[in-house]
Design brief:
This protein has 530 residues and is mainly α. Helices cover 59% and strands 5% of the residues. The protein contains 22 helices and six strands. Strands 3-4-6-5 form a four-stranded antiparallel β-sheet, with helices on both faces. Strands 1-2 form a two-stranded antiparallel ribbon. Helix 2 packs antiparallel against helix 3 and helix 14 packs antiparallel against helix 15. The longest helix is centred in the middle third of the chain and has 37 residues.
Length: 530
């Protein structure tokens, strides 16, 4: 039971990454637009207006994007019919219980509502049923994927044979979506209130709430479930939508100016005023000091503590991981280098991350990202009108670099922790990290062999930085052999699941693994993610 639930959550987390992967597009387009016109936000520069509006094409349609990406990602063979079904399902639900439709069912003239009647209508949350509703996107995506997995091989009588198999899936999804819309019509007002109140409670914790979120975020990295938690705070699931509101910039400020209550406020409502500057971005900003400065400083400490004869190898691993963390915010190659060999350090890292996010939130220093908290995203967000004293995050980063270095260097020596390059040679310890110059053929061969060979692999897919493998016999897995491929680490969440932490080169490793398995006629399904 535990393996089933954990496996389902991990698959959902992986599928969520398909939607999250489009966020950098919005960040880049809107970031450049705000740089071109930092005062008018597109009003004074037509190129800036085009870029900001183009980025909005992503932000304003996140519900559709999540429905399509999750349906595609959870489908057994990642077929386009599942993605099409997600699109149809979302459109069906959105139109059947959108605000205008519901008002029509009830004979309500929305333009004529005023006073308590308008308040009562707003409290039911029908206005939140729109193109950006991520929660609906997730529900529809799961539904469409289930329909695909259950019915994509269904055969109909000869006179209906044209609609058999995958062609049947969008049709059935539309039917089941009518049922889902009916359920949501009954439950949505209550669910909306629960989610809205929970979101308000989290935001009411202020900096402490932001710090707790960041602490949990890091602790969940080993399981791969952090993507699911991130969606609660970064997207419009419970009304927080930190990334979407931050990237929206001027649009968010305009919405705040027009807000009349907590439900219409995209930031923090104090009873009469909606504040967004210094508030929106609090669940992102504090990650910059850790990813750009803290973890690279920890890498330096681990390098200096490595045994002399192994410093050259460890140095190359730490340098590659530190550069990835600083520039792009990809931290897993560094984190997995000490996560299991020195778990105490990882807990300290999680605590320091929570502290960093809490400090940035307490001082209202904000910056945002579309991918992760690295140098590239900081530059892109610097001219966003919601970026508030973002340069103080650099100052905070220097302080956290010193803290990370001292804490890591001291604890490694004091407790004699076996971080990379210390103590006895570890079986299967990587002698080099995978890079753009790596021989992926040899790496894929080592990974397949370490997983027990082609016959022991049920399926392979991948997410942002890791291969996710379903296996038949856990006793045949040899972690040492897998690590010889130059991967950052290996996680075994259950007896039927193995995650190989590759890093930024994961797509190329997956492609080669898939190619070798395909030529061996192994069972394979994959997902295109970045």
């Amino acid at each position: 039971m535990r393996d089933t639930v954990l496996g389902a959550l991990q698959r959902l987390g992986k599928a969520l990454m398909g939607a999250v992967a489009v966020m950098p597009v919005a960040a880049i387009l809107m970031g450049i637009g705000y740089w071109l016109d930092p005062e008018g936000w597109g009003a004074n520069n037509i190129a800036a207006a085009i870029l900001i509006k183009a980025g909005g094409a992503v932000l304003d349609n996140l519900g559709w994007i999540f429905a399509i990406a999750i349906a595609f990602g959870l489908a057994k063979d990642n077929n386009g019919a599942a993605a099409l079904s997600g699109f149809i399902g979302y459109g069906t639900v959105k139109l059947l219980i959108g605000p205008d439709t519901v008002a029509g069912y009830r004979g309500i003239d929305l333009d004529a509502l005023e006073g308590q009647a308008a308040i009562d209508w707003a409290a039911q949350g029908w206005a939140a049923v729109n193109d950006k509703n991520v929660l609906f996107g997730i529900l529809v995506g799961i539904l469409a994927a289930w329909v695909y997995n259950r019915f994509h091989t269904t055969k109909l009588p000869d006179f209906l044979a044209f609609f058999s198999g995958r062609r049947l899936v969008p049709i059935l999804t539309a039917v089941f979506s009518i049922v889902l819309a009916g359920v949501l019509y009954l439950l949505w007002p209550l669910l909306y209130q629960l989610l809205f109140n929970f979101g308000q409670a989290v935001q009411g914790l202020g900096a402490i709430g932001a710090g707790l979120y960041a602490f949990i975020n890091r602790l969940l990295i080993p399981t791969g479930l952090h993507h699911a938690v991130n969606s609660i705070f970064w997207f419009d699931v419970i009304g927080i939508n930190d990334i979407g509101n931050f990237l929206g910039g001027g649009q968010t400020i305009a919405a705040a100016a027009a807000a009349t209550d907590a439900a219409t406020c995209p930031g923090v409502w104090d009873g009469s005023t909606c504040t967004v500057v210094g508030e929106v971005g609090r669940y992102q900003a504090g990650f910059f000091p850790v990813m750009m400065f803290g973890l690279p400083a920890a890498a330096l400490a681990m390098f200096l503590r490595a045994d002399s004869k192994r410093k050259k190898v460890v140095g190359s691993l730490m340098l590659a991981g530190a550069l990835a963390s600083f520039f792009t915010g990809v931290t897993e190659p560094l984190e997995f280098s000490f996560m299991f060999v020195a778990p105490l350090l990882y807990v300290v890292h999680a605590v320091l991350t929570g502290l960093s996010v809490a400090i940035a939130a307490a001082f209202n220093w904000t910056a945002g990202f579309g991918f992760s908290a690295g140098f590239v995203d900081m530059v892109l967000s610097a001219q966003n009108p919601l970026a508030n004293q973002w340069w103080m995050l650099l100052v905070q980063g220097l302080v956290f670099a010193a803290i990370y270095f001292v804490v890591f260097y001291y604890l490694i020596g004091w407790l004699n922790l076996k971080t990379p390059g210390r103590g006895d040679d570890v079986e299967g310890e990587a002698t080099a990290q995978l890079s753009s110059d790596s021989n992926y053929t040899d790496a894929a061969r080592s990974i397949i062999t370490g997983l027990g060979g082609e016959s022991n692999i049920d399926s392979v897919d991948y997410c942002a930085t890791r291969l996710r493998v379903a296996i038949k016999d856990h006793t045949q897995v040899k972690e040492g052999t897998i690590k010889q491929a130059g991967v950052a680490g290996v996680i075994r969440p259950s007896q039927k699941s193995v995650q190989v932490i590759v890093g930024p080169q994961v797509q190329f490793v997956y492609d080669e693994v898939a190619n070798q398995l395909r030529t061996s006629s192994a069972s394979l399904h994959g997902e295109q993610e970045v």
